[in-house]
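Project outcomes to date are best conveyed with an example. Our students and postdoctoral researchers have been running inverse folding experiments weekly, and each run begins with a structure described purely in C-alpha coordinates. The record below, which covers 445 residues, was selected by the lab manager from last quarter's runs and is presented without edits.
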Protein backbone atom coordinates (compact mmCIF):
# COMPACT_ATOMS: atom_id res chain seq x y z
CA UNK A 1 0.00 0.00 0.00
CA UNK A 2 1.25 3.54 -0.77
CA UNK A 3 2.44 4.96 2.55
CA UNK A 4 3.19 8.59 1.73
CA UNK A 5 2.40 11.19 -0.86
CA UNK A 6 -1.15 12.11 -1.85
CA UNK A 7 -2.33 10.63 -5.17
CA UNK A 8 -2.55 13.08 -8.04
CA UNK A 9 -4.05 10.84 -10.70
CA UNK A 10 -6.74 8.17 -10.59
CA UNK A 11 -8.41 5.48 -12.62
CA UNK A 12 -11.83 3.93 -11.90
CA UNK A 13 -12.44 0.42 -13.21
CA UNK A 14 -16.14 -0.52 -13.02
CA UNK A 15 -17.62 -4.00 -13.40
CA UNK A 16 -21.18 -5.23 -13.78
CA UNK A 17 -24.47 -3.41 -14.04
CA UNK A 18 -25.41 0.07 -15.19
CA UNK A 19 -25.78 1.10 -11.56
CA UNK A 20 -22.06 0.41 -11.19
CA UNK A 21 -21.32 2.40 -14.34
CA UNK A 22 -23.19 5.33 -12.81
CA UNK A 23 -21.39 4.92 -9.48
CA UNK A 24 -18.06 4.77 -11.29
CA UNK A 25 -18.82 8.02 -13.10
CA UNK A 26 -19.79 9.69 -9.83
CA UNK A 27 -16.63 8.43 -8.09
CA UNK A 28 -14.60 9.94 -10.91
CA UNK A 29 -16.43 13.25 -10.58
CA UNK A 30 -15.92 13.19 -6.81
CA UNK A 31 -12.18 12.65 -7.15
CA UNK A 32 -11.88 15.31 -9.86
CA UNK A 33 -13.76 17.72 -7.60
CA UNK A 34 -11.07 17.14 -4.98
CA UNK A 35 -8.30 18.05 -7.41
CA UNK A 36 -7.24 14.66 -8.78
CA UNK A 37 -6.89 14.10 -12.52
CA UNK A 38 -7.95 11.06 -14.51
CA UNK A 39 -4.83 9.19 -15.64
CA UNK A 40 -4.37 9.32 -19.42
CA UNK A 41 -5.01 6.07 -21.25
CA UNK A 42 -1.96 3.84 -21.12
CA UNK A 43 -0.39 5.61 -18.14
CA UNK A 44 -0.24 4.32 -14.57
CA UNK A 45 -2.48 5.99 -12.00
CA UNK A 46 -1.52 6.91 -8.44
CA UNK A 47 -4.94 5.69 -7.24
CA UNK A 48 -6.93 2.81 -8.74
CA UNK A 49 -10.54 2.29 -7.69
CA UNK A 50 -11.92 -1.19 -8.43
CA UNK A 51 -15.69 -0.64 -8.50
CA UNK A 52 -16.87 -4.21 -8.10
CA UNK A 53 -19.96 -6.31 -8.81
CA UNK A 54 -21.02 -9.33 -6.73
CA UNK A 55 -23.55 -10.84 -9.13
CA UNK A 56 -21.25 -13.01 -11.21
CA UNK A 57 -19.63 -16.22 -10.05
CA UNK A 58 -16.26 -15.91 -8.29
CA UNK A 59 -16.56 -12.11 -8.29
CA UNK A 60 -14.44 -11.76 -5.16
CA UNK A 61 -11.64 -13.94 -6.56
CA UNK A 62 -11.49 -11.76 -9.67
CA UNK A 63 -10.98 -8.75 -7.41
CA UNK A 64 -7.99 -10.40 -5.75
CA UNK A 65 -6.59 -11.22 -9.17
CA UNK A 66 -6.85 -7.57 -10.22
CA UNK A 67 -5.24 -6.47 -6.96
CA UNK A 68 -2.35 -8.84 -7.58
CA UNK A 69 -1.80 -7.53 -11.11
CA UNK A 70 -1.79 -3.94 -9.89
CA UNK A 71 0.71 -4.69 -7.14
CA UNK A 72 3.00 -6.56 -9.53
CA UNK A 73 2.82 -3.91 -12.24
CA UNK A 74 3.59 -1.17 -9.72
CA UNK A 75 6.89 -2.74 -8.66
CA UNK A 76 8.42 -0.79 -5.79
CA UNK A 77 5.77 1.95 -6.03
CA UNK A 78 2.39 0.26 -6.45
CA UNK A 79 -0.70 2.48 -6.66
CA UNK A 80 -3.03 3.17 -3.81
CA UNK A 81 -5.81 0.62 -4.29
CA UNK A 82 -9.42 1.20 -3.28
CA UNK A 83 -11.99 -1.59 -3.56
CA UNK A 84 -15.50 -0.18 -3.93
CA UNK A 85 -18.92 -1.57 -4.84
CA UNK A 86 -20.81 -4.69 -3.88
CA UNK A 87 -17.85 -7.01 -3.31
CA UNK A 88 -16.45 -4.39 -0.95
CA UNK A 89 -19.77 -4.35 0.90
CA UNK A 90 -19.96 -8.13 1.19
CA UNK A 91 -16.29 -8.98 1.72
CA UNK A 92 -14.91 -5.84 3.39
CA UNK A 93 -12.94 -7.20 6.34
CA UNK A 94 -11.81 -10.26 4.41
CA UNK A 95 -10.40 -8.08 1.64
CA UNK A 96 -8.38 -6.17 4.21
CA UNK A 97 -7.12 -9.43 5.71
CA UNK A 98 -6.26 -11.13 2.42
CA UNK A 99 -4.89 -8.17 0.46
CA UNK A 100 -2.37 -6.03 2.37
CA UNK A 101 -1.92 -3.90 -0.75
CA UNK A 102 -5.46 -2.54 -0.44
CA UNK A 103 -5.65 0.75 1.42
CA UNK A 104 -9.39 1.43 1.15
CA UNK A 105 -12.55 -0.67 1.15
CA UNK A 106 -15.75 1.31 0.62
CA UNK A 107 -19.31 0.11 0.01
CA UNK A 108 -21.67 1.42 -2.67
CA UNK A 109 -23.55 3.65 -0.24
CA UNK A 110 -20.47 5.21 1.36
CA UNK A 111 -18.20 6.22 -1.53
CA UNK A 112 -18.97 9.91 -0.94
CA UNK A 113 -16.53 9.60 1.98
CA UNK A 114 -13.74 8.38 -0.30
CA UNK A 115 -11.69 11.64 -0.17
CA UNK A 116 -11.38 11.42 3.62
CA UNK A 117 -10.44 7.74 3.34
CA UNK A 118 -7.75 8.59 0.77
CA UNK A 119 -6.28 11.12 3.18
CA UNK A 120 -6.15 8.50 5.93
CA UNK A 121 -4.62 5.94 3.58
CA UNK A 122 -1.99 8.48 2.55
CA UNK A 123 -0.95 8.58 6.20
CA UNK A 124 -0.73 4.78 6.30
CA UNK A 125 -4.12 4.18 7.93
CA UNK A 126 -6.09 1.52 6.06
CA UNK A 127 -9.78 2.44 5.99
CA UNK A 128 -13.01 0.45 5.65
CA UNK A 129 -16.50 1.96 5.35
CA UNK A 130 -19.51 -0.19 4.52
CA UNK A 131 -22.30 1.88 6.06
CA UNK A 132 -25.47 2.33 4.02
CA UNK A 133 -26.61 5.99 4.29
CA UNK A 134 -27.81 6.30 0.68
CA UNK A 135 -29.47 9.71 1.06
CA UNK A 136 -26.32 11.13 2.62
CA UNK A 137 -24.27 9.85 -0.30
CA UNK A 138 -26.24 11.68 -2.97
CA UNK A 139 -26.33 14.91 -0.95
CA UNK A 140 -22.55 14.84 -0.58
CA UNK A 141 -21.66 14.24 -4.22
CA UNK A 142 -20.49 17.16 -6.39
CA UNK A 143 -22.49 18.66 -9.23
CA UNK A 144 -22.39 16.62 -12.43
CA UNK A 145 -19.62 17.51 -14.83
CA UNK A 146 -19.81 17.41 -18.62
CA UNK A 147 -21.54 14.24 -19.81
CA UNK A 148 -22.09 12.50 -23.11
CA UNK A 149 -25.26 12.54 -25.23
CA UNK A 150 -26.71 9.72 -23.10
CA UNK A 151 -26.48 9.91 -19.31
CA UNK A 152 -27.50 7.79 -16.34
CA UNK A 153 -29.48 9.14 -13.40
CA UNK A 154 -29.93 6.93 -10.34
CA UNK A 155 -33.41 7.51 -8.92
CA UNK A 156 -33.77 4.46 -6.67
CA UNK A 157 -31.41 2.09 -4.87
CA UNK A 158 -31.69 -1.13 -2.94
CA UNK A 159 -34.19 -3.96 -3.01
CA UNK A 160 -36.83 -5.39 -0.68
CA UNK A 161 -37.75 -8.36 -2.87
CA UNK A 162 -35.22 -10.89 -1.50
CA UNK A 163 -35.08 -13.20 -4.49
CA UNK A 164 -33.41 -16.31 -3.13
CA UNK A 165 -30.44 -16.14 -5.54
CA UNK A 166 -29.63 -12.45 -5.15
CA UNK A 167 -27.23 -10.53 -2.91
CA UNK A 168 -28.50 -7.03 -3.76
CA UNK A 169 -30.62 -6.59 -0.59
CA UNK A 170 -27.50 -7.36 1.43
CA UNK A 171 -25.01 -5.27 -0.55
CA UNK A 172 -27.20 -2.31 -1.58
CA UNK A 173 -29.64 -2.28 1.33
CA UNK A 174 -33.38 -1.62 1.47
CA UNK A 175 -35.28 0.18 -1.27
CA UNK A 176 -34.96 3.95 -1.08
CA UNK A 177 -36.23 6.59 -3.50
CA UNK A 178 -34.32 9.81 -4.04
CA UNK A 179 -36.40 12.99 -3.59
CA UNK A 180 -38.30 14.26 -6.62
CA UNK A 181 -36.80 17.76 -6.48
CA UNK A 182 -33.25 16.41 -6.34
CA UNK A 183 -33.86 14.27 -9.42
CA UNK A 184 -35.36 17.09 -11.45
CA UNK A 185 -32.44 19.35 -10.52
CA UNK A 186 -29.87 16.72 -11.45
CA UNK A 187 -31.67 16.02 -14.73
CA UNK A 188 -31.64 19.73 -15.54
CA UNK A 189 -27.89 19.86 -14.91
CA UNK A 190 -27.32 16.79 -17.08
CA UNK A 191 -29.23 18.39 -19.95
CA UNK A 192 -27.32 21.66 -19.50
CA UNK A 193 -24.11 19.62 -19.69
CA UNK A 194 -25.06 18.07 -23.02
CA UNK A 195 -27.24 15.04 -22.30
CA UNK A 196 -29.94 14.50 -24.91
CA UNK A 197 -31.09 11.20 -23.39
CA UNK A 198 -31.39 10.20 -19.72
CA UNK A 199 -31.74 6.64 -18.46
CA UNK A 200 -33.32 6.43 -15.01
CA UNK A 201 -31.60 3.75 -12.95
CA UNK A 202 -32.60 1.61 -9.99
CA UNK A 203 -32.30 -1.93 -8.72
CA UNK A 204 -36.10 -1.83 -8.94
CA UNK A 205 -36.47 1.47 -10.74
CA UNK A 206 -40.25 1.26 -11.05
CA UNK A 207 -40.49 1.03 -7.25
CA UNK A 208 -39.55 4.72 -7.16
CA UNK A 209 -42.09 6.98 -5.51
CA UNK A 210 -42.03 10.50 -4.19
CA UNK A 211 -43.80 13.81 -3.76
CA UNK A 212 -43.81 16.06 -6.80
CA UNK A 213 -43.53 19.86 -6.89
CA UNK A 214 -47.27 20.20 -6.17
CA UNK A 215 -47.13 17.90 -3.15
CA UNK A 216 -48.78 14.95 -4.89
CA UNK A 217 -47.60 11.40 -4.28
CA UNK A 218 -46.41 10.02 -7.63
CA UNK A 219 -44.72 6.92 -9.00
CA UNK A 220 -42.11 6.54 -11.70
CA UNK A 221 -44.57 7.56 -14.41
CA UNK A 222 -45.16 10.85 -12.60
CA UNK A 223 -41.43 11.54 -12.51
CA UNK A 224 -41.11 10.67 -16.19
CA UNK A 225 -43.97 13.01 -17.09
CA UNK A 226 -42.25 15.92 -15.34
CA UNK A 227 -38.83 15.18 -16.81
CA UNK A 228 -40.41 15.05 -20.26
CA UNK A 229 -41.19 18.76 -19.85
CA UNK A 230 -37.47 19.64 -20.00
CA UNK A 231 -37.24 21.29 -23.45
CA UNK A 232 -33.80 20.03 -24.47
CA UNK A 233 -34.23 16.50 -23.14
CA UNK A 234 -35.26 14.39 -26.11
CA UNK A 235 -35.28 10.83 -24.80
CA UNK A 236 -36.10 9.06 -21.53
CA UNK A 237 -35.43 5.43 -20.65
CA UNK A 238 -35.49 3.45 -17.40
CA UNK A 239 -34.02 0.20 -16.09
CA UNK A 240 -34.22 -2.25 -14.32
CA UNK A 241 -37.90 -2.93 -13.62
CA UNK A 242 -39.59 -5.55 -11.47
CA UNK A 243 -42.90 -7.10 -12.56
CA UNK A 244 -44.30 -6.60 -9.05
CA UNK A 245 -43.87 -2.82 -9.29
CA UNK A 246 -45.49 -2.22 -12.68
CA UNK A 247 -48.38 0.24 -12.38
CA UNK A 248 -51.23 1.20 -14.68
CA UNK A 249 -49.71 4.67 -14.90
CA UNK A 250 -46.35 3.37 -16.08
CA UNK A 251 -47.96 1.24 -18.78
CA UNK A 252 -50.06 4.21 -19.91
CA UNK A 253 -46.97 6.43 -20.02
CA UNK A 254 -45.51 4.33 -22.81
CA UNK A 255 -48.44 5.23 -25.02
CA UNK A 256 -48.74 8.87 -23.94
CA UNK A 257 -45.21 10.29 -23.54
CA UNK A 258 -43.40 10.74 -26.83
CA UNK A 259 -40.02 11.17 -25.15
CA UNK A 260 -40.32 7.83 -23.33
CA UNK A 261 -38.58 5.40 -25.66
CA UNK A 262 -40.34 2.22 -26.86
CA UNK A 263 -38.13 -0.13 -24.89
CA UNK A 264 -38.81 -2.16 -21.76
CA UNK A 265 -36.37 -4.28 -19.77
CA UNK A 266 -38.48 -6.51 -17.51
CA UNK A 267 -36.60 -9.50 -16.02
CA UNK A 268 -38.50 -12.79 -15.79
CA UNK A 269 -35.65 -15.22 -14.88
CA UNK A 270 -37.54 -18.46 -15.73
CA UNK A 271 -40.55 -19.76 -17.59
CA UNK A 272 -41.32 -22.33 -14.89
CA UNK A 273 -43.78 -21.37 -12.18
CA UNK A 274 -42.21 -23.82 -9.74
CA UNK A 275 -38.75 -22.33 -10.30
CA UNK A 276 -40.14 -18.80 -10.03
CA UNK A 277 -41.70 -19.66 -6.68
CA UNK A 278 -38.41 -21.18 -5.48
CA UNK A 279 -36.69 -17.97 -6.58
CA UNK A 280 -39.21 -15.96 -4.53
CA UNK A 281 -40.31 -14.10 -7.63
CA UNK A 282 -43.76 -12.57 -7.25
CA UNK A 283 -45.03 -13.42 -10.73
CA UNK A 284 -45.94 -16.46 -12.77
CA UNK A 285 -45.14 -17.04 -16.42
CA UNK A 286 -48.78 -16.27 -17.27
CA UNK A 287 -48.95 -13.05 -15.24
CA UNK A 288 -45.67 -11.90 -16.78
CA UNK A 289 -46.94 -12.50 -20.32
CA UNK A 290 -50.15 -10.63 -19.54
CA UNK A 291 -48.10 -7.65 -18.34
CA UNK A 292 -46.20 -7.62 -21.61
CA UNK A 293 -49.48 -7.76 -23.53
CA UNK A 294 -50.59 -4.62 -21.71
CA UNK A 295 -47.37 -2.80 -22.58
CA UNK A 296 -47.75 -3.82 -26.22
CA UNK A 297 -51.34 -2.61 -26.25
CA UNK A 298 -50.13 0.80 -25.02
CA UNK A 299 -47.13 0.92 -27.37
CA UNK A 300 -47.37 -1.66 -30.19
CA UNK A 301 -43.79 -1.14 -31.43
CA UNK A 302 -42.18 -1.58 -28.01
CA UNK A 303 -38.93 -3.58 -27.88
CA UNK A 304 -38.83 -6.08 -25.03
CA UNK A 305 -35.83 -7.20 -23.04
CA UNK A 306 -35.42 -9.56 -20.09
CA UNK A 307 -33.07 -11.46 -17.77
CA UNK A 308 -32.80 -15.23 -17.44
CA UNK A 309 -31.08 -17.63 -15.06
CA UNK A 310 -30.56 -21.22 -16.16
CA UNK A 311 -29.70 -24.09 -13.85
CA UNK A 312 -31.36 -22.76 -10.70
CA UNK A 313 -31.26 -25.50 -8.02
CA UNK A 314 -33.72 -28.24 -8.88
CA UNK A 315 -34.43 -27.02 -12.43
CA UNK A 316 -35.46 -29.97 -14.60
CA UNK A 317 -35.17 -30.28 -18.36
CA UNK A 318 -38.94 -29.85 -18.62
CA UNK A 319 -38.79 -26.64 -16.60
CA UNK A 320 -35.98 -25.34 -18.78
CA UNK A 321 -38.12 -26.15 -21.82
CA UNK A 322 -40.83 -23.94 -20.31
CA UNK A 323 -38.31 -21.09 -20.34
CA UNK A 324 -37.64 -21.69 -24.04
CA UNK A 325 -41.39 -21.66 -24.67
CA UNK A 326 -41.71 -18.30 -22.90
CA UNK A 327 -38.85 -16.89 -24.99
CA UNK A 328 -40.65 -17.95 -28.17
CA UNK A 329 -43.93 -16.49 -26.90
CA UNK A 330 -42.36 -13.08 -26.21
CA UNK A 331 -39.89 -12.65 -29.07
CA UNK A 332 -37.35 -10.54 -27.19
CA UNK A 333 -35.49 -7.79 -29.01
CA UNK A 334 -32.66 -8.14 -26.48
CA UNK A 335 -32.04 -10.23 -23.38
CA UNK A 336 -29.42 -11.17 -20.83
CA UNK A 337 -28.88 -14.75 -19.70
CA UNK A 338 -26.66 -16.33 -17.08
CA UNK A 339 -25.90 -19.64 -15.45
CA UNK A 340 -26.95 -19.81 -11.82
CA UNK A 341 -24.05 -19.28 -9.44
CA UNK A 342 -24.48 -19.57 -5.66
CA UNK A 343 -23.91 -16.39 -3.72
CA UNK A 344 -22.78 -16.93 -0.12
CA UNK A 345 -25.50 -16.15 2.41
CA UNK A 346 -28.41 -16.40 -0.03
CA UNK A 347 -31.16 -19.02 0.54
CA UNK A 348 -30.62 -20.63 -2.87
CA UNK A 349 -27.02 -21.46 -2.02
CA UNK A 350 -28.26 -23.89 0.63
CA UNK A 351 -30.91 -25.52 -1.57
CA UNK A 352 -30.70 -29.11 -2.75
CA UNK A 353 -30.51 -30.16 -6.37
CA UNK A 354 -27.70 -28.00 -7.73
CA UNK A 355 -27.48 -28.54 -11.47
CA UNK A 356 -24.16 -29.86 -12.86
CA UNK A 357 -22.12 -27.21 -14.62
CA UNK A 358 -21.97 -29.03 -17.96
CA UNK A 359 -25.77 -29.24 -17.97
CA UNK A 360 -26.05 -25.53 -17.16
CA UNK A 361 -23.63 -24.69 -19.97
CA UNK A 362 -25.68 -26.74 -22.43
CA UNK A 363 -28.91 -25.04 -21.37
CA UNK A 364 -27.32 -21.60 -21.54
CA UNK A 365 -26.13 -22.25 -25.09
CA UNK A 366 -29.59 -23.37 -26.17
CA UNK A 367 -31.22 -20.40 -24.48
CA UNK A 368 -28.80 -17.91 -26.00
CA UNK A 369 -29.33 -19.45 -29.43
CA UNK A 370 -33.09 -18.93 -29.06
CA UNK A 371 -32.63 -15.37 -27.79
CA UNK A 372 -30.24 -14.66 -30.66
CA UNK A 373 -32.76 -15.83 -33.23
CA UNK A 374 -35.41 -13.50 -31.85
CA UNK A 375 -33.01 -10.56 -31.57
CA UNK A 376 -31.97 -11.00 -35.20
CA UNK A 377 -35.62 -11.32 -36.25
CA UNK A 378 -36.44 -8.06 -34.44
CA UNK A 379 -33.55 -6.28 -36.14
CA UNK A 380 -34.54 -7.63 -39.55
CA UNK A 381 -38.11 -6.48 -39.01
CA UNK A 382 -36.70 -2.99 -38.42
CA UNK A 383 -35.18 -2.80 -41.89
CA UNK A 384 -37.19 -0.30 -43.92
CA UNK A 385 -37.98 1.90 -40.95
CA UNK A 386 -36.86 5.51 -40.76
CA UNK A 387 -36.10 6.68 -37.23
CA UNK A 388 -34.12 9.15 -35.17
CA UNK A 389 -30.65 7.96 -34.17
CA UNK A 390 -28.80 9.65 -31.31
CA UNK A 391 -25.14 9.85 -32.31
CA UNK A 392 -22.95 8.65 -29.43
CA UNK A 393 -19.49 8.15 -30.90
CA UNK A 394 -17.38 7.72 -34.01
CA UNK A 395 -17.42 4.36 -35.73
CA UNK A 396 -14.44 2.19 -36.61
CA UNK A 397 -14.21 3.43 -40.20
CA UNK A 398 -13.41 6.98 -41.38
CA UNK A 399 -16.58 9.03 -41.66
CA UNK A 400 -18.62 6.43 -39.78
CA UNK A 401 -20.81 7.18 -36.78
CA UNK A 402 -22.51 4.98 -34.20
CA UNK A 403 -25.71 5.73 -32.31
CA UNK A 404 -28.86 4.27 -30.81
CA UNK A 405 -32.32 3.86 -32.31
CA UNK A 406 -35.42 4.43 -30.18
CA UNK A 407 -35.46 0.64 -29.62
CA UNK A 408 -31.90 0.73 -28.19
CA UNK A 409 -30.39 -0.87 -31.28
CA UNK A 410 -26.87 0.09 -32.28
CA UNK A 411 -26.98 1.79 -35.67
CA UNK A 412 -23.95 2.74 -37.75
CA UNK A 413 -23.96 5.05 -40.76
CA UNK A 414 -21.73 7.37 -42.76
CA UNK A 415 -22.18 11.05 -43.45
CA UNK A 416 -22.06 14.51 -41.93
CA UNK A 417 -22.83 14.31 -38.20
CA UNK A 418 -21.40 15.01 -34.77
CA UNK A 419 -21.63 13.42 -31.35
CA UNK A 420 -24.90 14.49 -29.75
CA UNK A 421 -26.76 15.01 -33.02
CA UNK A 422 -30.17 13.43 -33.48
CA UNK A 423 -30.23 12.34 -37.11
CA UNK A 424 -32.99 10.94 -39.27
CA UNK A 425 -31.80 7.56 -40.51
CA UNK A 426 -33.14 4.88 -42.85
CA UNK A 427 -32.43 1.39 -41.46
CA UNK A 428 -31.17 -0.61 -44.44
CA UNK A 429 -29.44 -3.77 -43.19
CA UNK A 430 -29.65 -5.91 -40.06
CA UNK A 431 -27.14 -8.04 -38.20
CA UNK A 432 -27.41 -9.87 -34.87
CA UNK A 433 -25.99 -6.97 -32.84
CA UNK A 434 -26.45 -3.85 -34.95
CA UNK A 435 -28.06 -2.29 -38.01
CA UNK A 436 -26.66 -0.34 -40.92
CA UNK A 437 -28.32 2.97 -41.64
CA UNK A 438 -28.36 5.58 -44.36
CA UNK A 439 -28.48 9.20 -43.31
CA UNK A 440 -31.79 10.79 -44.33
CA UNK A 441 -31.79 14.25 -42.79
CA UNK A 442 -31.27 16.02 -39.51
CA UNK A 443 -34.23 15.60 -37.23
CA UNK A 444 -33.08 18.00 -34.50
CA UNK A 445 -29.86 19.97 -34.36
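After processing, the design step wrote out the following sequence:
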Amino acid sequence: MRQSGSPRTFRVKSFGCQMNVYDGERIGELLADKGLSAAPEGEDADLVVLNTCHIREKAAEKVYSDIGRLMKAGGDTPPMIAVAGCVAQAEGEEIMARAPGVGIVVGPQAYHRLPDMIERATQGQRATDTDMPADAKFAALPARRKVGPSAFLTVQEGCDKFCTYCVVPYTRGAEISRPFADLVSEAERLVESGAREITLLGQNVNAWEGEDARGRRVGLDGLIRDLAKLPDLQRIRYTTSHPNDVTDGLIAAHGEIEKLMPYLHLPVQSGSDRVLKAMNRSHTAESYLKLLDRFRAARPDIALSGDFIVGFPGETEEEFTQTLMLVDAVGYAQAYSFMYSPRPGTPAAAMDGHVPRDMMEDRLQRLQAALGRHSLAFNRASVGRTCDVLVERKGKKPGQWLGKSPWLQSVYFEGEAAIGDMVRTDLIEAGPNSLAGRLAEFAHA
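Residues 262-382 form a domain with the Transcription Regulator spoIIAA fold (CATH 3.30.750.200). The longest helix spans residues 357-382. The training component of this project remains on track.
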